[in-house]
Structure formats: structure tokens, C-alpha cells
Amino acid sequence: MKALEFIRTALFVPGNRPDRVDKAVRTAADVVIIDLEDAVPHSQKKQTRAVVREKIMDYQERPVLVRINALDTEFFEDDLNAVVVAGLACIMVPKVEAAAQIQQINRALLKIEENKGMRPGSVSIIPLIESALAVENVFQIVLQRTDPPRLFTIAFGAADFALDMGFEITKSGEELFYPRARIAVACRAAGVEPPLDTPFMIDLKDLEALEADIKRACQLGFQGKLCIHPNQVEICNRLFSPTQEEIEYAQKVIQAFDAAEAGGAGAIQLEGKFIDYPVVERCRRILKIAAKIS
């Protein structure tokens, strides 16, 4: 199993379509999410679990996630028992709305890991924030610390959130500004990895609108995006990655500032720009992200 690192793209693929799973793992997506929830009809969930388990074991060199069904459904326990195997990097749990649910998921995973002789904590968790109540509780959710640690980050699901709120999602995305901002701030305040943004589902052929949507997520502090089609992967990877110019400038800033700091200065000017500790810290983050991606 490959460990989770910086995720720019997480590509969904239906669990009942093994041929699409094979194609998805050959894309440039950072991780592949095999879906047992919305993409699989109730009548096929039981038989699909075996297919998903097989694909997890087939592709242990790739970070493979599984979106299971929600904690309060009849499918949750059987989903976990089927897919928690060596090679599974993480489960994505939909419709998480309360901090206590993180502990419930951890207890269920511990029991299965023990029964299967797996290392405790080997499976990470990404909860999906998909309702008004979840957005309201998001800081308490990401603040949860399990033993062993499991929460990698959280992801935003705008389709169910919009349904809960009773509005339509638009290409311009103003209606999603508040939940996105609240989710990103919660992750930063709790000290967990930046969140994953909602899929762009309005028009899969409109790559310009997708680009604008990605830029909004970048501005708010998301590390990457959930994708529902392979044609979204390249543009997400590119826009969630530092450019070569940003990397070179960050290196230049750090080198100049370190030299100035050694001489007793805490702020400098470089190419007409004011450089102080917050700017330097941002440059260090850019280089850290670039190193993770490479």
C-alpha cells in the first residue's frame, strides 16, 4: 500500500465497473476512489464488494481509496468488512455530521483490523462534509483525534449540501463560498491536511468553468479536488501544483532572506517586493508541496 501524501486529484470510479477501475489507475490522478455509495445501485452493492476488494489487492502500488456507504445505513458494516484488506489506503465516509461519528468509525476499523491481523491504524479516514449540519460542526469533526490517528483530511460534497440547503449550484459558485471557506479554515485551525474540494459536475465539457472552479478552491486553501471524469485530472494536477516560476521565486526568496537574517535583518526587499517572515513561510510551503508532488 502506498501512503497518502499531497492529493491534487482524487478520481471517482464506480465499484461495479471493474473495467473503469483498471482505466482509472492508469491515469495521472494522485489517488483513485472506488465508489460503493452513489454510483452503485442497492441491488448490486453486495456483489460489488467482492469486485472492489479484488481491485484493491490488484493495485497495491497505487493509493486506492473506497467510498463506502454512510454510517447510518444498512451497508456500512458489511462494506467495511469487505474492503478493509492489506493494500487499502483510506476509506471515504459520506454524510459525516458529528465529531462522535469519527470515533465510531475508528472503533469499527480497529475491530476489523484486529480480526484480520492488520496493523491498527493502517486505514485512514476522509469524511465527506455534505450538509448544513456538517458544515456547522466541521471544526469539531476535524478536531477529533483517534487512537491510533486516522483522519487524513476532509472533503466537501456540494451536491448533497445544495440539496440540503435547497439551492442550485451555479458555474460562478458564489453560493459555495461560505461552506468552502469554513471547511478550509477548520482544517487549518485543527492542524490537519488541507481539504479536498467538491467535484465539478455542472458541465463536464466546459473546462474553462472547471478551471475557474479550481482557482476558487486554490484561493480558499484546498489542496486538491474530487474528480468524476478523467478529463478533469490534468487540469486539476496542473492548477493545484506550484508553477516552475513560483518554485524558483520561492527558492530565491528563502536564499536571500536567510542571508539577510544571518546579518541581523528580519525584513528585506526583493525585486521590489517586501519580504518578511510570513512571506518566507509561504515560500517554504510552496517548496514543501513541490517536494511532495515530485
In summary, what is this structure?
The chain is an alpha/beta fold and 294 residues long.
Number of domains: 2
Helix content: 40-55%
Uncertain stretches of 5 or more adjacent residues: none
Number of helices, where a helix is a run of at least 4 consecutive DSSP H or I residues? 12
Assigned CATH class of the largest domain: Alpha Beta
Describe the 3D structure.
The chain is of the alpha/beta class. It has twelve helices and ten strands. The protein has helices at 18-24, 45-58, 76-83, 99-115, 132-136, 138-142, 158-165, 177-190, 207-220, 233-239, 244-262, 277-293, and strands at 9-14, 31-35, 64-67, 88-93, 124-129, 155-156, 196-197, 224-227, 268-270, 273-275. An eight-stranded parallel β-sheet has the order 6-5-4-3-2-1-8-7. Strand 4, helix 4 (99-115) and strand 5 (124-129) form a beta-alpha-beta unit. Helix 11 (244-262) packs across helix 12. The longest helix has 19 residues, at 244-262. The protein is globular and about 65 Å long.
Question: What secondary-structure arrangement, pairings included, does this model have?
Answer:
Blueprint: E1 9-14, H1 18-24, E2 31-35, H2 45-58, E3 64-67, H3 76-83, E4 88-93, H4 99-115, E5 124-129, H5 132-136, H6 138-142, E6 155-156, H7 158-165, H8 177-190, E7 196-197, H9 207-220, E8 224-227, H10 233-239, H11 244-262, E9 268-270, E10 273-275, H12 277-293
Parallel strand pairs: 1-2, 1-8, 2-3, 3-4, 4-5, 5-6, 7-8
Antiparallel strand pairs: 9-10
